[in-house]
Amino acid sequence: MNFPPPSPKHTLTQKSLLTVVVVAVVVVLIVAIVVVVVGVVIVIAIVVVIVVVDPSISSISSGSRSTVVLFIVVKVVVIVVVVVVVVVVVVVVVVVVVVVVVVVVVVVVVVVVVVVVVVVVVVVVVVVVLIVAIVVVVVGVMIVLVLVVVIVEDPSISSISSGSRSTVELFIVVKVVVVVVVVVVVVVVVVVVVVVVVGKLPSLMNVLTGKFVAVRHQVVLDLRVKLSKS
Questions:
Q1: Which residue spans traverse the membrane (predicted)?
Q2: Rounded to whole angstroms, how far apart are CA atoms 91 and 127?
Q3: I need a labelling partner for 119 at 20 to 30 A (CA). Which of 28, 71, 217, 228 fits?
């Protein structure tokens, strides 16, 4: 049975809905990317400061190497745990705010069924982004911890002295930079994949809302037919 196309009002509602969803997803992605990048920068600074600048590193010798390694690892773990907690808190707060805003805006412009669909989609996207951000940060932390142990255990580190300290510092910084570049590349690839997946949401939402409007029209027409026969 043929039914009339959606009215301009319905079309406007769908466009408003898609705009809200896209804006919400983009905001969450931007916040996640910024948080991850800032976290990586903080980790770089922590490693460089602890390994290169900390005076206790100069006490490395055959007798105290394990103590210094433990000392450095504990320092890195404590600071990185704080960074991870801050990342999670920031992302969770943004998720809550975005979901609340989406619900409020959507309740004003569309019906309850579409609200449920939008909220589910936004929550799923936000959870995926949150998981990706946390995984990236945790993997980065593990890499940094391994890096610290490897650097401290490296035989060349034992040559630290007043004459060769600058050379060892440069060697350590180069190692840190190389590993961090790899981590950043992985982060960028993951974010690009997430953005590509999220980029398909508008077409999905368009299909969902279009089907909903079509079904609603069909139900109205069926009711009219039944009423006319009664």
A1: 20-53, 65-90, 96-121, 128-152, 172-198
A2: 10
A3: 217
Cα–Cα distance, 187 to 137 (Å, whole number): 9
CB 191 within 8 Å of CB 29: yes
Burial 210-220 (b: 16+ CB within 10 A, else e): eebbeeebeee
| pTM for the full predicted model | 0.36
Distances from the Cα of 125 to the Cα of 26, 107, 188, 198, 206, angstroms:
10, 19, 18, 7, 17
Strands (E) across the chain are located at: none
Residue linked to tokens 């809200």: 20
Given a contact cutoff of 8 angstroms between Cβ atoms, the answer to whether 23 and 99 are in contact is: no
24 has a pLDDT exceeding 50 = yes
Say if residues 63 and 57 touch (Cβ distance below 8 Å).
no
Residue 178: exposure state from Cβ atoms within 10 A (0-12, 13-18, ≥19): exposed
